[in-house]
Amino acid sequence: MKVDLNSLAASQIALERGAKQVSNGSLTSTQAATEDRISIHSDSLSVQSLATQALNSPSIRQDKVNALRQSVTNGTYKPEASKTADAMIEHDVK
């Protein structure tokens, strides 16, 4: 699973521009400096934590692979044809 931290960070930062335009349509530097602000949402910490966990977890869940391999080797793996067909159709539709 690939996580793009740049897009996650960008989506968590909200720019709030409260500067008012003067009559000629431009902003004075004091208006822009005092009224522009950046607000970082509290959810950004949890998103950052989840992104770190995702990046640190292996892309292949070896325990699942080993269990499936063992089932196939033992002859106990019995896939259901209807579920396989449904999954193939669902994948093709997307």
Keywords:
11% strand, single chain, mainly alpha, two-stranded antiparallel ribbon, 94 residues, 5 helices, elongated
Low-confidence stretches are: 8-24
Helix content: 55-70%
How many individual domains? 1
Q: How far apart are the first and last residues' alpha carbons, in Å? A: 19 Å
Summed over residues and divided by their number, the pLDDT gives a mean of: 74
Query: Looking at the structure, what is the overall shape?
Result: elongated
Q: Please identify the structural class as seen in this structure.
A: mainly alpha
**Looking across the biggest beta sheet, what order are the strands in?**
1-2
What is the count of β-strands?
2
Query: How would you sum up the major sheet?
Result: 2 strands, antiparallel
% residues in beta strands = 5-15%
Round the Cα radius of gyration to an integer and report it: 26 Å
Give helix and strand order, one letter per element, not per position: HEHEHHH
Count the DSSP helices: 5
Descriptive report:
- The protein is elongated, with a radius of gyration of 26 Å.
- With 94 residues, it is mainly alpha-helical.
- The chain has five helices and two strands.
- The protein starts with a helix and ends with a helix.
- It has a two-stranded antiparallel sheet.
- Helix 1 (5-12) runs antiparallel to helix 3.
- Residues 8-24 have low confidence and may be disordered.
- The chain has one domain.
